[in-house]
Amino acid sequence: MGSDKHCTDGSCDAGHGASRRDFIYMTAGAMAAVGAGAVAWPLLNSMEPAADTLAMSTTEVDISGIVAGVGKTVMWQGKPVFVRHRTPEEIKEAEQADNATMVDPQRDEDRVQKPEWLIVVGVCTHLGCVPVGEQPTENRGEFGGWFCPCHGSQYDTSGRIRKGPAPKNLAVPPYKFVSDTVVKIG
Amino acid sequence: MVGLHKSEFKNPVIRWIDTRLPIFTLMQAEYGKFPTPKNFNALWNFGAFATVMLVAMIVTGIFLAMNYDPNTGHAFDSVEHIMRDVNFGWLLRYLHSNGASMFFAVVYIHTFRGMYYGSYKAPRELLWILGMVIFLLLMATAFLGYTLPWGQMSFWGATVITNLFSAIPFVGKAIVTWLWGGFSVDNPTLNRFFAFHFLLPFVICAVVFLHIWALHMTGSNNPTGVEPKTARDTVPFHPYYTAKDSLGIVIFFIIYGIFTFYFPNVLGHPDNYVEANPMVTPAHIVPEWYFLPFYAILRAVTWTITIPFTKIILIEAKLGGVLAMFGSIAVLFALPWLDRNPVRSCDYRPTYKKFMWALVVVWVLLGQAGGHAPDDHVMIFGADLGFTWVVVAQLGMLYYFAHFLVVVPWLSKHEKTLPLPESIEAAVEEKNRAKGAKA
Amino acid sequence: MTRLLTLLFAVMLALPAFAHEETKYPHVDWPQDGMFGTYDRASLQRGYQVYKQVCSACHAMKQMSYRNLSDLGYNEDQIKALAAEVQVQDGPDDSGNMFDRPGKPSDHFKAPFPNEKAARAANGGAYPKDLSLMVKAREGHSDYVHALLTGFEDPPAGFKVPAGMYYNKYFEGHLIGMPPPLSADGLVSYADGTVATKDQMARDVTEFLSWASEPELETRKKMGLQILIFLGIFAVVMYFVKNKSGKA
After folding, report:
1. Which residues of A touch C244 (CB under 8 A)?
2. Residue B51 maps to which CATH number?
3. What is C23-64+108-242's CATH topology?
4. Could you tell me the pTM of the whole model?
5. Are residues B141 and B233 located together in one domain of the fold?
6. What is the ipTM of this complex?
7. Residues whose CB falls within 8 Å of the CB of residue C47, separated by 6 or more in sequence, listed in order
8. How many domains does chain B contain in total?
9. Which of C105, C106, C244 is closest, CB to CB, to A24?
10. Each residue of C179-221: pLDDT tens digit?
11. Alpha carbon of B46 to those of B34, B95, B204: distances in Å?
């Protein structure tokens, strides 16, 4: 096409010549953008959790061995989860606690499915330490729940923050009672 | 305000940056207006392809490194984890493994262009040498990378090549132990190979920068070998060659895609899907296709060099092979001084052109030899030719060194070259006239 | 352009001339072959049954997990049941002891032997190889695996077969330590009612092993087609861009 030889600055083709060239350039640009997106997507998506990590995203726990008053710590998604078998006294304390004094008010009924079983993520909402208090012999703080030794946060028998610097209650993970003796977390 | 650059750009943001760090002015000068010979053929696309492959390998490599574990107990499994569990992991892996083959194919064609058109001659000698340095770094990177999946070929290839250094007199064994970090290829070796495989591509980037800088100092060569004389010999790089390179890159990606998506393992070796086993050697240890010609040269030296009439060994076969292999690359470094014929392009050197094509054929034959066991008989279409592949390798090696050390210097002085065109423009017009006459 | 093509052509010409003289494996048209090939899920399920009932006694597949079987068309409950059929070692428990528990979908396939030495001890010194990648790990791929499984036959006259070895037409050196695994028709009673002849079982288990080596095959080919079509159109567009940018 010899006629295009001297027309690279667009000065020659007015009218349909120019718009034809613009169309081609726009199409090329659009396809290049699509191509760039098609390259970026698998790269970024490959950083999402891999299939085997996702497969480990649930943990099943046999709760038949946990006696009342005692808690068991299990691993779920790399974090500790407290599974506490609550005594009737602990349940009463949790249900009757005064919301008005709480930093993060929440009713106990909203935090458990079955009152005897409290399941919370064992990571202090302050700066991430693991609180103590699973065994009755450990320091459970003034509220009978858990005590975080790092900065002194204290949680009650519903896992709610009652004293200390933590801003939120211990997180409740998604869980389901698969049977009377097995809980699936996640 | 000494030193602030006077930017010609209108856009305020670009102008602000450009005044303080003139990258936009630089890009405009080096890739916008840069006068480029207007007669480039398809072979001139391959430098751009090589740059694209360098970026592609680094990007896929970094994402693979997020999931790879360089411990011998886990390496093979971590690659399978990438293939099976990581989202698009199989794509990253196949892009990287096939990308290595594409990278070498591109570099070989790019180098062929340099040899055919005399792009290594003055004033571009340093450009050529930098290119050879990049080639050495690329080979090292590829060798290190191939060990990482920790398959049988990974392990045994690493064992064979590191063992070569024991051929060095006196200090050879100590060097090998130092390379291994132990008494055989094992975990310390794998870990350091991973570290270096991660590092070297960035060293390549630095040398590529120097390579392109050297190119921009002299300007590009062209198919006639005649330097541009007037503005009518050149065109601005943009839009002519940005467009041509972009088209080339899309077509290149089609080929890359065909391998990656439809034949992802055809260039590889099945034995590398078997986990490394130091107790069991595979029947044939072969490197990847791009190393085969060098492998052939390495194994071609089967005789010992002694002082005549004595039993004193000067160079045993193993060392001889190593010297021949490295020598075959060293000879390329010397090319600008072996060939000083003022005519650059083989288009105007009819005799040298024939030898160039012969070199290509020999190179392919050496590759075939490298892929066969040395004692295998040569079979063409099922017929046994009666001699072994090691003979082919020896003859090929003989031609290779004769080409560079005898033919090239002799032709450099004595070849009857064809008359060169007056200018690039004259050559282009002549070609158009010929095409018009044919139509 | 011509020079480039000549170069590539010269290189390509050289290659097939030197094709290896090697045992030809009978070619089978596998459902997953070709640009548009996909796995035959019914065959995959039958093949898994053969692996489970015949091969898994000796051969591990440690790269596979039970959850991968969803690719075969099993739903979550079926996979849970399949996984729970085996006992898997876990632990340590709160007393520090290892214990056995039913398998979960996230578990890898249970290996028949805890390590290579145990495998060799139980098999007269021979090591039944892991099958996760067998189809990719052998030249001839699916055709080779199928040929091997159907290639057990009487040795030719005069060929000595030592005790503990078996003659196989396609195995390198013809002497293999594995007794013919698919020794008779009906070894497995297929859940879908297909007649389990020796060749049927060989095909199905080869199909299963091909999938196990390349579970991403279908996605890969589909994505390849989309990308090549896109690049083809893009190349045409770029060709016009190049010409519109002017002839140098």
Report:
1. 4, 20-21, 24-25
2. 1.20.810.10
3. Cytochrome Bc1 Complex; Chain D, domain 2 (1.10.760)
4. 0.90
5. yes
6. 0.93
7. C204, C205, C206, C207, C208, C209, C211
8. 2
9. C244
10. 999 999 999 999 999 999 999 999 999 999 999 999 999 999 9
11. 18, 19, 17
